[in-house]
């Protein structure tokens, strides 16, 4: 399942692929000392891919041998690895979670390589058991790598992650939560330490309070929603610059117009659609100017230039 999160970001749910018993049986285990974790219900393996524009799924079906499966380790940063000691687990279910995450790392490596080979784009990828945590894991993989947050490291990651850096917490919700915390406390771990479910529900409402209560503990029940093939609703080109003469300004307008028209032509060819309107906006310190007109088929590049 693939969900487009923004123009340069997507989520991929590869749970079923990674939990396939045949793949688990062929997976190599981590070479780390003893660790411990406990899970309630089914855990998910998610990947957050950033800075790329295309995902090739064929790489997920390649047959791999033991040595190639282990090769993901060189490209993966395990967050707080010293506290994520994971080779021996209390029961078989826990072991399956770790092996599934390991295979998720290998799939992430194949995806990154496939995108680079096809398009020349690099990807930073985060792998973990939820959308929220995999998004955080991606930051450990920047600019061209992948990060893994294991269940045993989630608490530590939350303690050091600022509220405003977490997906869906950067706006009004994050600011509201910040007012409930003591001065100087600004991490997700602070929420878990200082605010009870009752506190959060009273301030944010029952549903939102429960969501925040779970999120600050790294628990995220939001599923990846299928959006493969979803089309953008607009095409934008813009440029910020200092004071310019009119000839220099016209040069930039022509470049922007040329870029827009070329991208519209490409989108029309790919998706068999054509835009209805074009909006032009110019803003400076003292003046704001905006107008729109109907986009005409076979629009010439200089039609967007004021003449």
Automatic annotation (TrEMBL):
Compartment(s) where it occurs, according to its Swiss-Prot or TrEMBL record: Nucleus
Entries under Pfam families matching the protein: IMS, POLH-Rev1_HhH
Keyword Disulfide bond: no
Cellular component GO terms held in the UniProt record: nucleus; replication fork; site of double-strand break
MF term (GO), any: DNA-directed DNA polymerase activity
GO biological process, one term: error-prone translesion synthesis
Keywords, alphabetical: DNA damage, DNA repair, Metal-binding, Nucleus, Transferase
Keyword tRNA-binding attached: no
Domain UmuC positions: 1-170
UniProt protein name: UmuC domain-containing protein
